[in-house]
Amino acid sequence: MKKYAVSPDKLRWRVEESRLTFKSTAEVDPAEGIVGQPIALEAMRFGVECDAPGQNVYVRGVTGTGRMTLVNSLLNELKPKARRRLDRCYVHNFNQPDRPRLVTLDAGRGRQLKRMLRNVTDFLANDFAEALNSAPIKSGRERIQEETQQQLDQITRPLEKELQANGLAMVQLQSGPVAQAAIFPVMDGQPVAPDQFRQLAASGKIDEAQLEQVEGKIREFSKRMTDVSNEASQAWQAGLQRLHEYMESEARTILENLVRPLQAQFEHPALHEFVNEVIEDVIENRLQGSSTEKLPDPHVVYGVNLICSHEQSDASPVIIENSPTIANLLGTVEPDFIGDGRTVTNYRGIRAGSLVRADGGFLVLDANDVLSEPGAWRMLMRAMRTGCVEI
C-alpha cells in the first residue's frame, strides 16, 4: 500500500497561476443559466416555447435543488413574447347591476377608453346642466310654454267672460300638488269663497234672494266649468309631454355628439351597448325634474374599471404567485363605502387575480402551496380546463 500513498503536500489540488488568462476574477464574466441540468433545461425550453392549449410545465425535484431558480432563469433568458396582449375592463351593467359587463380590448386601449370616458363623465358632472340651458334650447322651451299657455287661454277665455258678466270668477285652488278650478262670486271686484258669501248672507250684509241667485248661477256654470277644466287639463298635460319630448330630444343630441368620438374609436359591441345605456340612463334620470332622489356621481356610474393592462411591454407577463389562495388566483370584489357605514359591491371594486394578470404569459405556482389551500387546486383545474375565470 505504500506505493499508493500520497504525500501531504499533494493532497490538495492547486491551480497553476501561469495557466490563467486573467489577473483578477473581476475580469471574468459570470456564468449564465443553470449548470449541470441539460435535460431539464431542454424540457423546460420546449414547454415554454410550445404554445398550445393544455400545454403546462410541471417541475419535479428535491426541495432546495433550485427548481424555482431554474424556471425564473429560463423565462428571463428566453423572454417569450405574449401570446395574447389584451386589456380587461369592467363597466356598469344597467340591466343587471350585480353582473358588470366585461369589455376586452387590445393592449393599451384600456387606458385610452378610461381617458375618453373620463371626458364624458366630467361633462355630465360639470357642464350637462349648463348645456341644457343654452340660449337656443331655452328659446325652444319658452316657445312651447307660450304656445301651451295660449291654448289654455283659448279654452278658458269664453267661460271666464260669461262668468264675469254674471258677477262670478274662475279661481284655481291648490290642493297639495293638484290645482282645482272653482267658481266664486265677486264682491267689490274680488272673488269671495262661497262659505264666506253665505256668512255675509247670515249676517244680513246681503239678502237671501241674492244668495240664492248667486248659488243658482254657480250650479248652472259648474257642469260647463268641469268640461272646460278637463279640456284645459288635457291641453296642459299635452304641453308638458311636448316639453319633455323636446328636452329629451335636445339632451339626446348633446349626448350622442359627446360619445361619437368614443364610438368611432372603439368598434366593440359590448362597449357600444354600454354607451347607449349611458345615454338612456342620463335621459331617464338626469334631466331636470326627472328624479327627486340624490343621484350618484357620474364618474361612479359611467366610468370604467381597468383591471388588467398590457400596454407597457410586448413581453409575456410572468406572475409568481407565492400565496395561491382562491381569492389571489381568481380575484376579488371589494366593497364600495357609500356612507353611514353602508357598503355596496359594483364593477369598481373588481380586482384581477393571478390568472387574469398572467393571461397571455406564465403563472408560476408551487404545487404544494396550491394543494394546501382549500379548494384552490379544484378551482385551478376548472379554470385551465374551461379557459374561463369567474371573479
Name its key features:
13 helices; alpha+beta; three-stranded antiparallel beta sheet; 391 residues
Secondary structure layout:
Layout: H1 38-49, H2 67-78, E1 86-91, E2 101-106, H3 109-126, H4 128-132, H5 135-165, E3 168-175, E4 178-187, E5 190-191, H6 194-202, H7 208-265, H8 269-285, H9 298-301, E6 305-308, E7 318-320, H10 326-330, E8 331-333, E9 336-339, E10 342-344, E11 350-352, H11 354-357, E12 362-364, H12 367-372, H13 376-386
Parallel strand pairs: 7-12
Antiparallel strand pairs: 1-2, 1-6, 3-4, 4-5, 8-11, 9-10
What do you see in this structure?
By secondary structure, the protein is an alpha+beta fold. Among the domains are: 2-78, no CATH class; 137-247; 316-391, no CATH class. It contains 13 helices and 12 strands. The strands form 5 sheets. Strands 2-1-6 form a 3-stranded antiparallel β-sheet, with helices on one face. A hairpin with a 2-residue loop joins strand 3 and strand 4 (178-187). Helix 7 (208-265) packs antiparallel against helix 8. The chain is rod-shaped, with a radius of gyration of 41 Å. The protein starts with 37 loop residues before the first helix and ends in a 5-residue tail after the last helix. The mean pLDDT is 84.
Q: Largest beta sheet: what is the strand line-up?
A: 2-1-6
N-to-C span: 75 Å
pLDDT average, as an integer? 84
Strand content bin: 5-15%
The percent of residues in helical segments reads: 40-55%
Helix and strand pattern: HHEEHHHEEEHHHHEEHEEEEHEHH
Quick one: overall form?
rod-shaped
